[in-house]
Amino acid sequence: MDASWQWQMEHIPACRRFRREDFEDDTVTGEDGYVYHVSYLPAKVEGSDRVVILAHGYTDTRFGMMKYIQFYYDLGFHCITFDERGHGENRPVPCSYGILESRGLMSVYESVRERFGPDARIGLHGESLGGATVLRALEYRPDISFVVDDCGFSEILPVLKVGLRAMKLPQWLLGPITLAAKVFYGVPLKDARPIDFVKGNPVPLLIMHGARDDFILPEHSEKIRRATAGYCEMHLFEEAGHAESALRQPEKYGKVLREFLEQIGYLPKDAAKEKA
């Protein structure tokens, strides 16, 4: 946890204005009894009804989302970030690549809805694994105000093939891997397909992806873009590799995010000029 926080502070100057004590820590218990650790940063705009829940990537922690929190905070959002299953301060369990993680997100969502009330406008923002998590959450909550998917995958099996290739391991290992995941952990990896929950989706969707991403290839985002039914924007960041878009081009990232929220009517056109 400390290393995750420190990395953000060292690499993202705009995050250095935040202190650890600015966040309120809490826990949320999922429907299966699993406990999620959550941190809440209140909006600087008094009486704001804007809320975003942020889901981090594989092997990261909730503080890995600081590079995105800075943008939402400046736009008057309450920011909630949480440790996904098996990550951060949570109890170690195997990753299911969005299948069980999305259920955990919905437990956090329900606690946020209870906290802020029925009139709160709640959006979701996910990075990599978190991107898959927020996309799959569309199965449960079609009343979400918006979704931002940053370098998420459309399905996990092609990503695992890329990983095997990078480790110089034979592709046939994917068969035993998927079998073991199902037998020992009850996770059918073939079902880790967020794209299935985007089809027919009416929720406004913003897709960000690094053009140089050689792990989760940009073609995953293109498939998601083509599959969704509602308003959708997709933006590539030419200088960015995997999960690097906000890091490499923060000004462009913040501008794209703000203009998307204005376009869907979530923010007024002068949102950037609002004062706390």
CATH topology of the largest domain: Rossmann fold
Q: What is the N-to-C order of secondary-structure elements (H for helix, E for strand)?
A: HEEEHEHEHEHHEHEHH
- The residue ranges in which pLDDT falls below 50 over 5 or more consecutive positions are none
Task: Determine the structural class based on helices, strands and strand pairing.
Answer: alpha/beta
Question: Care to count the β-strands?
Answer: 8
N→C terminal distance: 30 Å
The CATH architecture term of the largest domain is: 3-Layer(aba) Sandwich
Mean pLDDT: 94
Radius of gyration: 18 Å
CATH superfamily of the largest domain: Alpha/Beta hydrolase fold, catalytic domain
Tally of helical runs? 9
Query: Strands across the major sheet, in which order?
Result: 1-2-4-3-5-6-7-8
Total number of domains:
2
- Overall, the morphology is globular
| Beta-strand proportion | 15-25%
CATH class of the largest domain: Alpha Beta
Largest sheet: 8 strands, mixed
* Percent of residues in helices: 25-40%
Summarize the structure.
With 276 residues, the chain is an alpha/beta fold. The protein is 34% helix and 17% strand.
Features:
17% strand, Rossmann fold, globular, 276 residues, alpha/beta
